[in-house]
Each structure stands twice: as structure tokens, then as C-alpha cells.
Backbone:
């Protein structure tokens, strides 16, 4: 990256030098043109004086005109013929106009090049900054489960623990590892989605099977946190999307709901699906901490953690809802969220296109 | 350390980490309470008190720095040990400026954590004990008066001086050995312990603050004297 920047700066310097050089050339040409015109004018003045002298010395007008064809020679005067004078002036004017247009065009091209290079430099700096911030935030997110793991291991090595305490610590460590694995998955997904490297299939997906499978995986954790999960999804409902994307979206929205309910000491999460026109709608409601309606626009941004730490930090990376929104966009669907305020729960609405043909399963 | 059971408040929102810290502190014989939210931590002090706060920085409600500043603003002098995932120098300094006593970056070693907890409690034990052992909690010198318990003083010109805990502790260390040279390292060790600050220059800054508070001419001090290359000497009277 450093080398690219050095290269870009060198190109920029060259462009600036070239612009100065072109400017000098125009100036130089203009100067030379002016000098040439002056020399010609002086020559014609001398010729006019010579013609006048010849006429005064008795040479015939016809003879003098033959010697100086460019001059208008009469008995009393001799000067550059008006048509030649006009030609001389127009030639000077034409050259000036030509230089102005050509020089202007070159400068415009050079200016555009400089603009493009500057824009590229700015964009690269922004991307670099975003990457650095992303890395710092991701590293930061990993430190808490790492600290918990280290603490559990050092507790086991420092103290003589009864078997049930050791068992509890091991469960805690396994849970920390699961948490870190979830984070790694989310970081990878988010990175792929950010760079548009995820190609999604488009096929009918049975929504009830996906939801039932995911809910069953979260039941144990929900029970620990005193949360009940209810799902009402009709078996006929099929969405047109990528099965892996649907799985990731439902999983992340459910994770988010559980993380929102845990800090208030327990509650309820309900998943309800229905067909609405040409779409299938899945509503995920929770009785958790909610959010201010004014914070709604920030919900789906990377690392925007409105309730940072309020239990949401336990399993989250601040990437879950960003992943949900990108996956929904890529699969032709959409997601929205609403809450009546802090402490009043939240509702996430997911809309997928309805399946065009029945799922093979 | 005295035989009294120390009470520690753990403020950490991550349930696993909080449980680990609480269990280990209990195993060491401390009485431990824990909350998982910045605002609840501040509210906890409305009805409780403790000898040490182990405080996470990234907290819901109020962050750890805000919790610490709020408590200090209310006059709570309980020592604070910050536990945080952010461990760079700028954050450390921010934590200490907010009134923290020590700073430990996650992930941390359990034994180091327990050692730091012990060290902070020992320093405070020393501070309280020495305040009691001198017979009086009040130091008087050259028209100045400092109440070590109240962290408050009155300077020679009658101005009331609200001391920070660190200023009071530095003054205490110096006043314990009037006329003797106390090195910067000794001051760091006794008042902060460990490598909390990047340099001993921090001590110099605190001495400057004390001079401004209590010296008649801070540019030509007669109580807080610099011993070049070594440290400081405290003189009670105007004998210099």
C-alpha cells in the first residue's frame, strides 16, 4: 500500500511538472510569434521606406510595385497593402486562439487527471482507515471471551477445585469458544458481504424447517436466560432465496432478540410468518431492551451497538444486523426494525420474495 | 494488611468474565458484590460502600470512565481498578485522569490481577493507618492545613483546597519523612504501585500542583523541594 501511494504521488508530481511545462511552451510560442510579427512589420517598414526612396529617385510606380509586390505604392506613399496587413494580423490572432484552445484543453485534461488521482488517493485512505478501524474493533470484541477463557483456565490451574466446579468452568470455556467461533463466522461473512464476494443462489426454501431447526439449537441457551421462544410458521410458506442466507439471517435476528431479552432478566421471543402478496413476511418480536426510534437508522450499521454491553456483547460482534441487511438486499428481500422505545421490546420484519416453484424437499 | 474483610464491587457486563472475577476474589477471602451496568454501579453507591471497585470500561448505561468520574465528583474516594479490552497508553491515561488507581488490559493473568488488587488495598490500608497513627489526620505547616481524611486543605492565604486522592497520598508519603529525600520511584511505588504511568514525570506534575496549592512562591518553593536527579524533600517549616 505504501508503494502504491508513493507511485501515485510520483505520478501526481509528474503531472504537475508536465502542466507547468505545457504552460511554458504556450508562453514561449506566443512570445516567438509576437517577435516574428514584429520582425515582419519592421521588414515591411524598411521596404516601404526603400519604395518611397525609389519613387522619389524617379523609378516608375510600376517598377517599384514589381520590386515590392506586398506593398501598396503610390506617388506620395508606400505601405504594406491592406490585405497583407489584415492577413498578418489574422495570422497572429489565429495562432493566439489556437494556443489558447490547445493549451486550455491540455490543462483541462491534466486537471482532470490530477482530480482522478486525488480522488483515488482519498478513497484509498478512507478504505485503509475503515480497515484499520474494523480490525481494531474486531480485535477488541475478541478480547472479552479470550479474557474469560484465560481466567477460567488460570483459575483451574491455580486452585484445587471440586469436580462440579471444574465441570462448570469447562462448560463456561466451551461456551466462550462457541462465542468466539460465532464471532469468527460473523467477521468472515461480513468481510465477504462488504466486498461483494458472496454469490447467492435463488431457490425455494421451506421457511418452517429452517426456523424450527434454528430455534431448537437456541432453546437451551434461551432456557438458561429465562427466555421462551415461540414460533408460528405455516408449513406451506416458501421463500425464494439462498438456503444458507436464510439460515444466517434467521440465526442473526434470533441471536439479536435473545441478546436483547437476556439483560432484562428474561422474557419472550416470538417468530411469526405469513404470506403478504408476492412476499413472505417473518416478524421476530422480543420483549427486550428495545431501542429509541431515533436510533433506528444506526441499527444495521457495522459495529453500531446501541446497547453496547447490555448482554448484547455476550454473543455479538456488532456485525449481526449488518450481515442480515446485506444478505436480505442480495437475496432481493428487505429488513426493517421498530421499537416503541427503550425497555419496550422490538420487532424485526423480514420480507423475502415468495417462492416461484415448490421446494424439492 | 489488616484482618478486616475487604469488600469489592465488580462492575462487568460480560457474565462469564464477571463470574470468573467474582469467584476468584471470593476465593481470596474478599466479600464481593457485582453489577453489570454503569448506571447501576453508581446507584449501588447510594446504599452501599466498598474498599475497591473493579471496573470494566465498555459498559451499558454509563461507561467505566464516566462511572469513575461521577463517583469522584460525588466525593467517593474508593480506589478503582480498571479492567478493559482497550489497553493503549491514551486509554490508560484517560482512566487514571478519570480518577482510576490502576489499569489492567484484557486478557489478563489471574495472579497479576489478584496481586494488583492486593497492592491497591495495601496502599489504601497504609494511607488510612498512617493517617490514624500520626494521632491526627491533619497536617499543619507554615500556615497551611491538610485534612488527609477529608482530602481537603486550607492554604496559607485562607483558600480552601480540594485535594485529589493522589495529591493527598503524595503529600502523606512526603510528610511521613519530613526533611528526608524521597525518590520519585518510591512515590510511584507507594502511591500508584507498578508501571501504571509511562514515566516518573507524572510525579513531577503532581508536585507542581501541590506547590501551586501550598507554596507562597511556587517558583521558589520552601516546602516541596526538588533534589535534582533523585526526588523530593518535604520541609514543614520555613527553615530553608
Residues:
Amino acid at each position: 500500500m505504501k508503494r502504491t501511494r508513493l507511485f501515485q504521488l510520483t505520478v501526481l508530481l509528474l503531472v504537475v511538472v508536465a502542466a507547468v511545462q505545457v504552460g511554458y511552451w504556450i508562453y514561449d510560442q506566443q512570445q516567438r510569434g509576437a517577435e516574428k510579427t514584429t520582425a515582419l512589420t519592421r521588414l515591411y517598414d524598411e521596404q516601404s521606406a526603400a519604395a518611397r526612396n525609389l519613387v522619389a529617385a524617379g523609378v516608375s510606380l510600376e517598377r517599384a510595385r514589381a520590386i515590392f509586390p506586398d506593398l501598396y505604392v503610390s506617388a506620395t506613399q508606400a505601405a504594406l497593402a491592406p490585405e497583407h496587413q489584415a492577413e498578418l494580423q489574422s495570422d497572429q490572432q489565429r495562432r493566439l486562439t489556437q494556443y489558447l484552445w490547445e493549451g486550455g484543453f491540455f490543462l483541462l485534461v491534466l486537471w482532470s487527471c490530477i482530480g482522478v488521482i486525488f480522488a483515488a488517493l482519498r478513497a484509498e485512505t478512507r478504505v485503509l482507515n475503515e480497515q484499520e478501524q474494523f480490525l481494531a474493533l474486531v480485535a477488541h470484541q475478541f478480547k472479552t471471551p479470550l479474557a474469560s477463557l484465560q481466567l477460567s483456565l488460570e483459575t483451574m490451574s491455580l486452585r484445587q477445585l471440586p469436580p462440579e466446579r471444574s465441570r462448570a468452568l469447562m462448560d463456561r470455556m466451551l461456551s466462550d469458544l462457541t462465542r468466539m467461533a460465532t464471532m469468527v463466522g460473523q467477521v468472515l461473512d461480513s468481510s465477504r458481504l462488504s466486498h461483494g464476494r458472496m454469490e447467492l443462489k435463488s431457490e425455494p426454501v421451506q421457511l418452517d424447517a429452517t426456523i424450527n431447526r434454528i430455534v431448537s439449537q437456541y432453546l437451551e441457551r434461551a432456557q438458561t436466560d429465562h427466555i421462551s421462544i415461540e414460533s408460528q410458521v405455516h408449513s406451506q410458506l416458501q421463500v425464494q432465496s439462498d438456503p444458507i442466507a436464510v439460515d444466517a439471517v434467521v440465526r442473526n435476528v434470533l441471536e439479536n432478540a435473545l441478546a436483547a431479552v437476556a439483560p432484562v432478566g428474561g422474557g419472550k421471543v416470538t417468530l411469526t410468518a405469513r404470506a403478504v402478496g408476492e412476499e413472505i413476511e417473518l416478524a421476530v418480536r422480543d420483549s427486550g431492551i428495545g431501542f429509541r426510534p431515533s436510533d433506528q437508522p444506526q441499527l444495521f450499521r457495522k459495529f453500531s451497538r446501541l446497547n453496547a454491553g447490555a448482554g448484547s456483547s455476550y454473543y455479538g460482534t456488532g456485525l449481526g444486523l449488518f450481515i442480515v441487511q446485506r444478505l436480505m438486499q442480495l437475496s432481493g428481500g428487505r429488513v426493517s426494525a421498530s421499537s416503541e422505545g427503550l425497555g419496550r421490546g422490538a420487532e424485526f420484519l423480514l420480507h423475502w420474495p415468495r417462492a416461484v416453484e415448490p421446494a424439492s424437499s | 494488611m489488616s484482618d478486616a474483610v475487604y469488600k469489592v464491587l465488580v462492575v462487568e457486563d460480560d457474565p462469564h468474565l464477571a463470574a470468573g472475577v467474582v469467584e476468584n476474589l471470593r476465593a481470596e477471602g474478599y466479600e464481593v458484590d457485582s453489577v453489570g451496568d454503569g448506571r447501576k454501579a453508581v446507584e449501588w453507591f447510594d446504599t452501599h460502600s466498598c474498599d475497591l471497585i473493579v471496573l470494566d470500561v465498555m459498559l451499558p448505561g454509563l461507561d467505566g470512565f464516566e462511572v469513575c468520574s461521577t463517583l469522584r465528583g460525588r466525593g467517593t474516594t474508593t480506589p478503582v481498578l480498571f479492567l478493559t479490552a482497550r489497553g493503549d497508553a491514551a486509554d490508560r491515561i484517560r482512566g487514571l485522569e478519570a480518577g482510576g488507581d490502576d489499569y489492567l488490559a484484557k486478557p489478563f493473568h489471574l495472579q497479576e490481577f489478584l496481586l494488583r488488587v492486593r497492592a491497591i488495598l495495601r496502599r489504601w490500608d497504609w494511607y488510612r493507618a498512617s493517617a490514624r497513627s500520626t494521632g491526627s489526620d491533619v497536617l499543619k505547616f507554615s500556615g497551611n492545613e491538610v485534612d488527609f481524611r477529608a482530602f481537603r486543605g486550607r492554604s496559607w492565604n485562607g483558600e480552601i483546597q480540594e485535594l485529589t486522592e493522589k495529591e493527598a497520598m503524595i503529600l502523606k508519603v512526603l510528610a511521613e519523612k519530613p526533611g528526608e529525600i524521597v525518590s520519585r520511584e518510591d512515590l510511584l511505588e507507594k502511591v500508584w504501585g507498578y508501571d501504571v504511568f509511562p514515566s516518573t514525570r507524572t510525579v513531577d506534575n503532581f508536585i507542581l500542583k501541590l506547590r501551586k496549592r501550598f507554596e507562597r512562591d511556587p517558583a521558589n518553593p520552601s516546602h516541596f523541594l526538588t533534589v535534582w536527579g533523585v526526588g523530593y524533600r518535604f520541609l514543614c517549616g520555613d527553615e530553608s
Summary: Chain B has two domains: 7-130, 148-234. The helical segments of chain B are 15-27, 38-47, 64-73, 89-97, 110-133, 165-176, 184-192, 201-214. The interface with chain A takes residues 13-17, 19-21, 23-24, 27, 36-37, 56, 58-61, 85-86, 106-111 of chain B (CB under 8 Å).
